Amino acid sequence: MAAAPLRPGLPSGILWGVVSGFTSMIANAGAPPFQVYVIPQRLPKDLFIGTGILFFAALNWFKLPFFVALGQLTRDTMLTSAALFPLAIVSTWAGVLLVRRVPAERFFTVIYYLLIAVGAKLLWDGGRGLI
Predict the structure, then answer these.
(1) pTM of the predicted model, to two decimals?
(2) Residues 113-126: pLDDT tens digits?
(3) What is the DSSP code (8-state) at residue 3?
């Protein structure tokens, strides 16, 4: 039997939003905290994907002035972005096709495994950094 969807309150949303924004700014690792907040809500697959897209689009626009202030938007980084732009378009369309074809239950199972793998990788990298 599937668990009932969790409807977290505003304090939980603020907490995980701040954690996601912070980890996104320092390590481009905002997805795990975002998913910790969103996955228990058991949103329909398309709404889950759309929420992530809108959240990270807004977050990245919010981070842009900070990256400019830190001097990270240079000619070289812009050229690299332009070179990778076609790959981003192809990857986006591949993701759309994948989401449309994979059943919701299998989709969320994959998301859980990816969340565990990414979390383990981040913990590994953090642990190695301490040594």
Answers:
(1) 0.76
(2) 988 998 899 889 88
(3) P
Q: Using an 8 Å Cβ cutoff, are 23 and 30 in contact?
A: yes
Alpha-carbon gap, residue 73 to 64, rounded angstroms: 9
**Which two three-digit tokens encode residue 82?**
């332009």
Surface-to-core class of residue 31, CB atoms within 10 Å of its CB (0-12 exposed, 13-18 middle, 19+ buried): buried
CA dist 6 and 27 (Å) reads 28
d(CA 39, CA 12): 13
Q: Is 7 left (phi over 0), alpha (psi -120 to 50) or beta?
A: beta
Under 8 Å CB-to-CB from 64, ≥6 apart: which residues? 73
What is the rounded CA–CA span in Å between residue 80 and residue 89? Answer: 15
H-type alpha helices, the chain? 10-27, 31-38, 45-69, 75-101, 104-130
